[in-house]
Amino acid sequence: MIGTRWEPSGTDAGGDFRCSSVAPVFTARHIPPFSSTEPPVLIPFPQGWTHYLVGGLTIGLGVSVLFALTGLIGGMSSVYSSTWSFVVQRPFFQQPRLVNSRAWRLAYAAGLIVGAFVWWLMFGHGERVAVSVPAWQLAIGGVLVGYGARLSRGCTSGHGICGLASLKLPSLLAVLTFMATAFIAANVMARLGGS
């Protein structure tokens, strides 16, 4: 929490902590597993918040322009299905909505990759970008996210950005489910000592 610090409750620092309110802290700290005697310090934006604001505004502007100029909704999970329509002849992948939209969806996905690369060149200071999450956790997370996107008939960009902007109730329910699941999974992994 912002403005919260956990301190030992006694003089022996034997693992009991009390909460005291302080000014916000802006340094990054890893959340220790339950077995640690060090208290968790939860910092919501350890690297600052400006790039999140700029990113959110840019994404909102991008999907707004896409919709205003073409009437198309800019979700990303459909890119996966429409791309498979090039090589898989199963009826699901050959639906007209996937086959007819695969060209612009590939261009849309390529724009995201090129945009990230341009950002890295301009603002990344030439530093390598990496995560400390093991590859197996990334793979499991990708499978679960892909399954969830198919189950909810859309991903976070389709439901969270485009669907909420259109005031769609199914999108609101999907986003609430995404967020609740993400909060639970992140906290469980942090407590278990995961990345």
UniProtKB/TrEMBL annotation:
Membrane topology listed for this record: Multi-pass membrane protein
Cited InterPro entries: Sulf_transp_TsuA/YedE (IPR007272)
Primary localization: membrane
Entry's family note: Belongs to the TsuA/YedE (TC 9.B.102) family.
Full protein name: YeeE/YedE family protein
Record keywords: Cell inner membrane, Cell membrane, Membrane, Transmembrane, Transmembrane helix, Transport
Ranges in coiled-coil conformation: none
Record's subcellular location: Cell inner membrane
Gene Ontology cellular component terms for the protein in this record: plasma membrane
Keyword Signal included in the entry's annotation: no
Transmembrane parts of this sequence: 49-82, 103-123, 129-149, 169-190
Organism, as annotated: Gemmatimonas groenlandica
One Pfam family hit: Sulf_transp
